[in-house]
From TrEMBL:
Coiled-coil residue windows: 54-91
Keywords per UniProt: Coiled coil, Membrane, Transmembrane, Transmembrane helix
Organism: Pseudazoarcus pumilus
A biological process term (GO) from this entry: type IV pilus-dependent motility
UniProt cross-references to InterPro entries, sorted A to Z: Extracell_DNA_Util/SecSys_Comp, PilN
Protein's UniProt keywords contain Transmembrane: yes
Name used for this protein in its record: Fimbrial protein
Transmembrane segments annotated in the record for this chain: 21-43
Annotated Pfam families: PilN
PANTHER family membership: DNA UTILIZATION PROTEIN HOFN (PTHR40278), TYPE IV PILUS INNER MEMBRANE COMPONENT PILN (PTHR40278:SF2)
Chain positions covered by the region annotation Disordered: 178-198
Amino acid sequence: MIHINLLPYREIRRRERRIQFYVVSGLMIALGAAIGLVGHLYMSGRVDYQEGRNEFLRAEIRKLDAEIAEIRRLRAQIDALVARKQVIETLQGDRVQPVYMFNDLVAQLPDAVYFRSLRQSGTRVTLNGHAQSNARVSHLMRSLDASPTMTNPGLVEVKSVSAGGRRLSEFTLNIRLDRPPETEAASDPQKTAAAETN
């Protein structure tokens, strides 16, 4: 017996395909939205994590900046202390210099020469005095040049004057003071240690 289907099967199949298409499209849209949501959450998490790391680095940088400022402050204090120490050492070494200078002046002073004034400015000393002759002034300059505490005697002026009915040579000369050798060794611990080892 022959069966004839009189139902509109094409329309039913078209409707089923349309429903299947809508279902698949809906599932794809839902899957795309889920993937987008997961990607967004993942990226937000990564951004938050990176922001946390950046904030940690900023906090560490602030700590390091504070430590650097403290180091600079300590270095400035150290430099100030070293400068003060050097000034004290210089004063300590120079406090005996006038004694050496006067001892040397008396020891190097030839006969028939005497000083009228002495003026010191730093390491430079200006001597003013009278001598019996110009040869005595030359002898004084050679003696001062041989001194361990005075160097570079330089004649500024010499002229002939009359004093008490006698003709004398009035002179002005400059000398430079050097630190005595034992004072230098005492003020420089490295030189002292080297001298002791030798």
